[in-house]
Amino acid sequence: MNPILTAFARSPDRGRGLARDMRVRWALEEVGQPYDVQLVSFAEMKQPEHRSRHPFGQIPTYQEGDLTLFESGAIILHIAERHPGLLPTEANARARAITWMFAALNTVEPPIVEFGLASILERDKSWYETRQPMLESRVRVRLDELALRLGDAEWLDGAFSAGDLLMVTVLRRLDASGVLQSYPSLCAYIKRGEARPAYQRAFADQLAVFTNAV
Q1: CA atoms in the 13 A half-sphere facing the CB of 104
Q2: Residue 181 belongs to a domain with what CATH number?
Q3: Taking burial as the number of CB atoms within 10 A of a residue's CB, which of 18, 86, 147, 210 is the most buried?
Q4: Contact 127, 188 (CB under 8 A)
Q5: Distance of CA 201 to CAs 9, 49, 58, 158, Å?
Q6: CA triplet 120, 147, 178: central angle to 5 degrees?
Q7: In whole angstroms, what is the distance from residue 167 CA to residue 207 CA?
Q8: What span, in angstroms and rounded, lies between the C-alpha atoms of 100 and 106?
Q9: DSSP label at 42?
């Protein structure tokens, strides 16, 4: 029986692949695991049935037999630990790849999300013009550090891993901001991730949901 992934019935990103179910779709495609998708509306996400899967009423969730998981990072780690292709077999390299997973979600993503949300939710506030440069500066600090670490390497630590998968999806949240234009190495890194056949299959599947919902 295929695992079941929940995703937005009408994604607020308009099919751009920024919703967090995209990360899980990509991971499943990388390891060649077929899966089914259950689409949920914003109203359904807050109902008891969905909250039994995700206590915070969000997506994605992942159901595999009697196992139910939430949080995209935890789901991807579960997938990576049970299928070859997303984590190295050598112990130290595997530990480093997992470290990059945590770095993407805990260190790089939070300032990016705060910066993006402020531009959407606070644009009409009196403090917006003074606060937004500060938020952008926080993002750039992390991008400077990440670009320095990546250098001219293809991936963060040798071969492509779940750490790269998560980092690419995190960085893509900056696409519309123009901030990435100052970081050609990171732009090239993102393009390498987007060029992977598994990414393209996952993107096409989530885009089809938006297209069919319009």
Answers
A1: 26
A2: 1.20.1050.10
A3: 86
A4: no
A5: 18, 29, 23, 24
A6: 30
A7: 21
A8: 10
A9: H
Domain range for 183 is 91-196
Sequential pLDDT tens for the chain (214 residues): 899 999 999 998 889 999 999 999 999 999 999 999 999 999 999 999 999 999 999 999 999 999 999 999 999 999 999 999 999 999 999 999 999 999 999 999 999 999 988 777 767 777 767 888 899 999 999 999 999 999 999 999 999 999 999 999 999 999 989 999 999 999 999 999 999 999 999 999 999 998 887 6
Are residue 107 and residue 183 in the same domain, yes or no? yes
CB 147 within 8 A of CB 1: no
209 φ, ψ (degrees, to nearest 5)? -65, -45
